[in-house]
Every structure is written in C-alpha cells, then in structure tokens.
Write a structure and sequence with these properties.
By secondary structure, the protein is mainly alpha-helical. The longest helix is centred in the middle third of the chain and has 18 residues.
Length: 64
C-alpha cells in the first residue's frame, strides 16, 4: 500500500516516471500476493492496484 500512496503523491506533483515506477512495483507485489486481501486493513491486491493506476492516469491528465 505504501507504494500506491507514494505513486498517488508523485502523480499529484506531475512526477510521471516516479508514479509509474511505484505503480509497477505495487503491481509486482500484488501479483505475488495473487488475490485481493485485507491484511492489516490495507485492502491490497491486484484490483486495488488497477484502481490506483486509473486514478493516477486521471491525475496525470492521461485519460480522455
């Protein structure tokens, strides 16, 4: 989850390369986890990463 939070912060400051790298790392970790889980109330998993990716693309004005 920390990678997703940091990616959102980077995107809001228009840090596209940083946001992309953090999203990619979060995606790797979510894929390793293999399913959506709620350990320590994080709600982390592949679906959450996908939702964050969409949100970040919107922040970066990359969705029309």
């Amino acid at each position: 989850m920390i990678h997703l939070r940091a990616a959102v912060a980077a995107a809001r400051h228009q840090g596209r390369p940083t946001a992309t790298a953090l999203l990619n790392r979060a995606e790797e970790l979510a894929d390793d986890l293999g399913s959506d889980e709620n350990y320590w109330q994080t709600g982390f998993g592949p679906t959450n990463v996908l939702l964050h990716r969409l949100s970040i693309e919107l922040d970066l004005d990359n969705v029309s």
